[in-house]
């Protein structure tokens, strides 16, 4: 258990998040395909998986179930609530930011929750200086990346980043799961 606890701390998972498993996910007719896609990706995380839908649909639960499946196999990964990641990087000096971003670029599996919650303004370096280069690198390298967002990739195109949304719409790299869309 000590190794799994250490991996959970490394990954950024808190105790309550470790309760979110595929077995604990409430399967219904409308989310069964999403559950199947997420559990398949958890077995063999390759390329990108984008889970989008309305609040409360189960996006974060599915992503945390993926995290817990990886943890059960003692695989390394990083899980971040995206606004917290941007906020934490804001507190660092530039060399520390570059080091942290470099680590995330090379992580075997990266799970980013609620990508669209990072607000886009002209002054927001978090998108331009962090998220776009990070996602571009992981896209070009086809690194296993799971993203959740309230908006669909086309919503993210308008509300967050054209660059990131284009990559999420590339079906050769990204599988998209819809759990209901925000209109």
Structure report:
By secondary structure, this protein is of the alpha/beta class. Helix content is 48%, strand content 15%. The chain has helices spanning 2-11, 32-43, 59-72, 82-90, 94-106, 125-140, 153-159, 162-168; strands spanning 48-53, 78-81, 109-113, 144-149, 174-179. The chain has a five-stranded parallel β-sheet with strand order 2-3-4-1-5. Strand 3, helix 6 (125-140) and strand 4 (144-149) form a beta-alpha-beta unit. Helix 4 (82-90) crosses helix 6 (125-140) and helix 5 runs parallel beside helix 6 (125-140). The longest helix is centred in the last third of the chain and has 16 residues, at 125-140. It is globular.
How is the secondary structure organized here?
Blueprint: H1 2-11, H2 32-43, E1 48-53, H3 59-72, E2 78-81, H4 82-90, H5 94-106, E3 109-113, H6 125-140, E4 144-149, H7 153-159, H8 162-168, E5 174-179
Parallel strand pairs: 1-4, 1-5, 2-3, 3-4
